[in-house]
Amino acid sequence: MTFHEQIQEGIPSVLPQPKPYQTDINHAPKRKEILTAEEKKLALRNALRYFEPQHHAELVKEFSHELETYGRIYMYRLRPDYRMYARPISEYPGKSEQAKAIMLMIQNNLDYAVAQHPHELITYGGNGAVFSNWAQYRLTMKYLSEMTDEQTLVMYSGHPMGLFPSHKDAPRVVVTNGMMIPNYSKPDDWEKFNALGVTQYGQMTAGSYMYIGPQGIVHGTTITVLNGGRKISKNGEGLEGKIFVTSGLGGMSGAQPKAGNIAGCITVCAEVNPKAVHTRHSQGWVDEVVTDINELVQRVRSAQANKEVVSIAYQGNIVDVWEEFDKQNIHIDLGSDQTSLHNPWAGGYYPVGLSFDEANAMMADNPELFKEKVYASLRRQADAINKHTAKGTYFFDYGNAFLLEASRAHADVMAANGIDFKYPSYVQDIMGPMCFDYGFGPFRWVCASGKPEDLAKTDAIAATILEEMAKTAPEEIKQQMQDNIKWIRGAQENKLVVGSQARILYADAEGRINIARAFNEAIAKGEIGTVILGRDHHDVSGTDSPYRETSNIYDGSRFTADMAIHNVIGDSFRGATWVSIHNGGGVGWGEVINGGFGMVLDGSSDASRRLESMLFWDVNNGIARRSWARNDEAIFAIKRAMESQPLLKVTLPNKVDDSLL
Questions:
Q1: What is the E.C. number (predicted)?
Q2: Does domain 436-645 have CATH number 3.40.50.720?
């Protein structure tokens, strides 16, 4: 069958042969045993409903084996035979250019070079899924190949509900993931309902089809490390010869060594999974690999002495690094952690003292003991970090729930008041006041032609736009503008592309609209092909997350989720091509509500109208909320927005004299 025929086939009427389990692929760990005998029957009924009854007798044993062996029913036999990657948009079958763009983005999320566990349909974060099983993938791609611009596909936690009559300005796809009744958002609820096949953890950009490989976070990490360096710098010195210690080389965390190189420091990043280490090293995202802790110490001393800019992957446990560097009196300038502690019991964090394989076996076979090991490891890690910060290390939580989970382990991470953490979130200290409050966030685009030359042209367009804007930018945002101009000018030489021809930069609403408008005009002139706009959910407006995106909201509302819901509703009727809303991305199931969008630019006047309307709202609804929280930077930004758009009238807060209270 041709590629087109396989896409259009959906769930085949004649079952493909079972596929062997490939041991050379990075697989998700076995999930914990959580279903009762009756619930396992329900999980099987739920899986078999995708297939005609004549196939049930053959599939029931196979799916039962998957459930017992892996803790989930992935339907491995239905994995397509074609290579999984983002093809040029012209190669997809369909009646809607917008639907073809979505197919491209879905396949990019599952590209072996991009996805963390591609056979389990998991893009990053240990459990951030595009779909729960391969039947859902096949059915979704079939629907997209049939869709017209008068229909909307509704996605229910990975399951395609179907095509509904719609209109050209409605989203082509509406995505929800994990939207549980609040009392059912505990970690074991995810384990249970995901095993039943009725919900999934979409992470942020995994389940919204907008992941672009680790480049998506390289820029934010670069900004974070640069500004972390500025916080500790004396006399304006840079990061030359300074050490940044962190951990995690999986999906998003794989960006850290590349960002450290761009920022100009020595990066040491620990990772226990040999396949993840090999992947990032082979892709050029990390310079060197060291497996011996003594060798690591000597290599770091040498790099310090020579003020090298180098990234080193330590294939081993991060706790050993913190402890050994303390023992050897190696000064760490910047410290963080980006293991997936939103998912600590299923492969997100590996405790010290266990090998990678031992930990994988224990988390499935003896989850209670594994939990004890994780908590003991977190206590040791926190103790070692505390010793370094006492010597002057600047440590920040990188929004991966490290401090939250460490506090649950009774690690020494709490401030004297017993309420706050002793270390700041990077959003509290850096990204919130410097970027999000001013409206700067991770704007991204994908060149749907698949041509590197199109990406180069869009880079040049974006750089020109930003340089022109910088000439008249107010003093408050000049640094943000210059950091992004430097970033986009160096994007090609830093070889950031993994998977689709994609780019990211931080821009405010004005910048996003100006860049998107210029792209659309270039498409209309035939200078470049179709462009797909999007953003990370980790942004100004799309995410309510009290320990990360909204951690610098101090009026008591950081535990509310109105902003994320407002954002996705507003994007839906202002012209987004697809929208998504998720429970649980980034910092854990039940800890965050986050939303995203995708928008296809095709050079048309319709696209021009939509981008102006949607991008303005997508940023400014968050600035309005941040302004109401009395954040001075956001008050400045929303006043600027009201001056530029007379129809915008936002309620501003009045400040209260503290002496009255």
A1: 4.2.1.49
A2: no
